[in-house]
Model the fold of this input.
Amino acid sequence: MSLVLFGSGEFTENVNDIDEYLITKYKPKNVAVIPTAAGQEADVEKWIDMAKTHYGKFNLPVIPIEIFNKTQANDRHLVNLLADADWIFFSGGSPNYLIETLRGSLLWDEVIEKYNKGALLSGSSAGAMVMGKYILSPSFKTIFGKDKVMWQEAFDLIDYTIIPHFDHFKRQSGFVNKLVSRSLTKIKSPWMGIDENTAIEFDGKDKIVHGMGNVEVHDQNGISHLKP
Done:
């Protein structure tokens, strides 16, 4: 089972080297693109179009999985489109909407079944966050506000809470200190911040970083920085 989480940049030239590496290593015959996280956005179809253009450069066919809501996530006909997929990719959007739509659905059951059988699984931004231990609800804005910081359990495919766009957030004064003091220490979760246009590959026990940035890890061993 292999999992690749992106901080951002999916389907753009910024991740060309990452995707070329993944295609060379895993040799997928296709990639199923699932833009469910952006299901509430008027231009959600753009993710499919971007993916087709991007993976066309690698001659890799895209299977568009146009599942944008809970009803569709339980539509067996739509879910069956994943039958021949050997790379499954969840793009960005709202992590809360994504997890609410996927939880308990036929779609997520099918994704996990294929993942357990060896399909490569990827997520970017919101798509990466739901693979971890917890997601922040309703958004990162609560870190700086007076509202109560809330967390909900995510799908726990890895034992870390995922913070995407990490280099962007670090440029906001005090973000990391507030993130830790107001929230992550309370749920006592190891966590990792993934920079934009950067991915971390979990292949067995190995954690391999690819792309333009770094991954900052906070766990029982302290703070570490994983670099490409």
